Amino acid sequence: FPPDCSWDAAYERELQTFQDIGDAGEIWFGEEGMVRIIRWLEKQKVPLDSSVLDIGTGNGVLLIELAKSGYMNLTGIDYSPSAIQLSEKVREKEGMSNIKLKVEDFLTPSAELSGFEICIDKGTFDAISLNPDNAAGKRKQYVRSLCSVLKPEGFFLITSCNWTKEELLNEFREGFEILEELPTPKFCFGGRIGNSVTALVFQRK
């Protein structure tokens, strides 16, 4: 975004657009990012009544797709009230009344945010990492928050476009072990092949 724009401002624009034309706006990391997450849950035979937390839910579209795939115990949080308003409108349009949505700052989660079996992050850890104000401290706090909301043995699925696999393994080394890396599109630049997106599944120890 331009420097004067915040996430809130971005979601306010998307909220206005949704009210005007019924378009939910940006899908972070695209459709295939959502498909990748849902496929993994299905492959693991994660029970449909497992409690799932979408950290930084934005417009809530991932939760809608999870609900369409049969998942019943879904919660989305975002620190932006405009994002939650937008996701509420998307939820109403889709008729998905079983999705819970809350304004929450994940770095200081409320007490009732706990006991989740699955936590999903698409770009929220990235956004926290870009915070010019004590990013390293905020990343540590994120890991602490994750430990407090995710049950032991619970799964954490993270999609990042800022961090490599090695860097994420380092960030989440306390309390988490890697289960697998999910395939993401490869790109070729100057003869070197790399990934613009990293998607990992961790399990809480």
Any overview of this molecule?
The protein is an alpha/beta fold and about 200 residues long. It has one domain (about 5-10, about 50-185, about 195-205): Vaccinia Virus protein VP39 (Rossmann fold). It is about 40% helix and about 25% strand. It is built from seven helices and nine strands; from the N terminus they run ααβαβαββααβαββββ. The protein has helices spanning about 5-20, 30-45, 60-70, 80-95, 125-130, 135-150, 165-170, and strands spanning about 50-55, 75-80, 100-105, 115-120, 150-160, 175-180, 185-190, 190-195, 200-205. The strands form two sheets. The protein has a seven-stranded mixed sheet, sandwiched between helices. A hairpin with a 2-residue loop joins strand 7 (about 185-190) and strand 8 (about 190-195). Helix 1 (about 5-20) runs parallel beside helix 4. The radius of gyration is 16 Å and the shape is globular. The termini are far apart.
Kindly give the count of domains. 1
CATH class: Alpha Beta
Let me know the average pLDDT.
88
Helices and strands: which structural class? alpha/beta
How many distinct beta strands? 9
Strand order of the largest sheet: 3-2-1-4-5-9-6
CATH superfamily, by name, is: Vaccinia Virus protein VP39
Low-pLDDT runs of 5+ residues are: 1-5
Order of helices and strands: HHEHEHEEHHEHEEEE
Straight-line distance between termini: 37 Å
User: What is the CATH-assigned architecture?
Assistant: 3-Layer(aba) Sandwich
Shape assignment: globular
Beta-strand content: 25-35%
Q: Kindly report the CATH topology.
A: Rossmann fold
Largest sheet: 7 strands, mixed
Helix content, binned percent: 25-40%
Organism: Chunga burmeisteri (Black-legged seriema)
GO biological process, one term: methylation
Pfam families: Methyltransf_31
Protein name: EFMT2 methyltransferase
